[in-house]
Amino acid sequence: MDARFNLYDNEIAAKFGKRFAGASLVIDQSPLPKATRELVSLRASQINGCGFCVDMHTKEAAAAGETLVRLHLVAAWREATVFTEAERAALALAEEGTRLADTHHGVSDETWAQVRKHYDDDQIAALVCLVALINAANRANVIVRNPAGSYVPGMLASMKS
């Protein structure tokens, strides 16, 4: 499978990608734990059907030491016992923030209360920005049908410098 359009070979898309990567660097440098960042990115990507991002965030999480059990259970996190309460709050926020059209309330008060309970203001800011950013990345990759399977951990790190 080939992508419909190569976002890395187009000047406008490449400029946008560089700025997009810069925004992700702000989140990377935040106090939000890396494991939480990868789990949230993986879950949103699963919901949005973005194979490229599922591939990327699964591999990045594994390279950072995440266990296969937890990675395999992200899609069924509600029924799994391997996630902390804080991670469960972040995963709920990721789901509700990704599925905005499914409810007129957006993120529920219950989910927001759980997020407030487990994260400080800087972590919440990073979490909210991460959900927005991963959803945008998912959409771009799904639109151009960026294929999954060839991602190598760290492959896009040079875009962040």
UniProtKB/TrEMBL annotation:
It holds the Pfam family CMD. Keywords: Oxidoreductase, Peroxidase. One of its GO terms (molecular function) is peroxiredoxin activity. This is Alkylhydroperoxidase. Residues 26-96 form the Carboxymuconolactone decarboxylase-like domain. It comes from Pseudofrankia asymbiotica. The keyword Chloroplast does not apply. It comes from the Bacteria.
